[in-house]
């Protein structure tokens, strides 16, 4: 029972982490508001896949490479930060543009796949998420966890991430929240773009600072 309690505790901690505002929430929200409900669910799947990948990496102990190989950590921070900065700039620049609402008549082929890939890339662009997964596993898992626990955690964390962002997608693809967003689109987009861009800049500055420290 203690092992089950440990898994439940881990899922609870990661659910709280998923619920905290950040670039993932921003991207899923925008996809859900502007597209079909299925596009929002595709974004939720992308977030779940990202959680699965990070959990699998942490379980395999590969996150230690980020500590041992400084250049890899620096590259991930600069590259991931640059991608998030680009996403933030796109959101900011599009704040004054009218939002095209996709429906059954205007839906384009492949929109489900594009929403999934976009969400997944945003999830994977933040290397701090990988560190968070690894540190939480190190703190909450028993010293010698059974193999079955290590095997079930990645798919359970996929479900964790997917469930939260599916709720977000369902809520924001409804007419009420969508109309509220459309009325305040300019200011919501500018705030969202600023948050995502600031996180990207922060990651890039940290990466370049680590690079200078390594050189010196």
Question: What is the count of helical runs?
Answer: 10
What is the number of independent domains? 1
**Helix proportion range:** over 70%
Low-pLDDT parts are: none
- Structural class assignment: mainly alpha
Could you explain the architecture of this structure?
The protein has 216 residues and is mainly α. It has one domain (2-13, 22-215). It contains ten helices and no strands. Helix 2 (23-34) packs across helix 8 (147-172) and helix 3 (37-60) packs antiparallel against helix 8.
Summed up:
The chain has 216 residues and is an all-alpha fold. The protein has 10 helices and no strands.
List keywords for this structure.
about 220 residues; mainly alpha; 10 helices; globular
Task: Present the secondary structure layout.
Layout: H1 2-19, H2 23-34, H3 37-60, H4 64-68, H5 70-93, H6 111-124, H7 127-140, H8 147-172, H9 175-183, H10 185-215
Helix pairs in contact: 1-7, 1-8, 2-3, 2-6, 2-8, 3-6, 3-7, 3-8, 5-10
């Amino acid at each position: 029972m203690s092992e089950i309690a440990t898994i439940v505790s881990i899922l609870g901690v990661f659910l709280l982490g998923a619920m905290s505002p950040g670039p993932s929430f921003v991207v899923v929200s925008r996809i859900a508001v502007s597209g079909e409900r299925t596009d929002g669910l595709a974004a939720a799947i992308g977030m779940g896949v990202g959680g699965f990948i990070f959990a699998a990496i942490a379980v395999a102990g590969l996150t230690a490479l980020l500590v041992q190989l400084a250049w890899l950590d620096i590259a991930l921070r600069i590259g991931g930060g640059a991608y998030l900065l680009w996403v933030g700039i796109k959101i900011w620049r599009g704040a004054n543009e009218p939002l095209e609402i996709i429906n059954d008549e205007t839906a384009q082929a492949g929109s489900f796949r594009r929403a999934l890939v976009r969400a997944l890339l945003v999830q994977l662009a933040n290397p701090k998420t990988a560190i968070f997964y690894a540190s939480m596993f190190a703190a909450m898992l028993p010293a010698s966890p059974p193999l079955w626990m290590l095997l079930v955690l990645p798919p359970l964390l996929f479900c964790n991430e997917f469930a939260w962002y599916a709720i977000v997608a369902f809520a924001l693809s409804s007419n009420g929240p969508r109309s509220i967003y459309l009325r305040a689109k300019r200011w919501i987009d500018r705030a969202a773009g600023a948050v995502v861009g600031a996180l990207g800049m922060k990651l890039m500055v940290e990466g370049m600072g680590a690079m200078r420290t390594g050189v010196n």
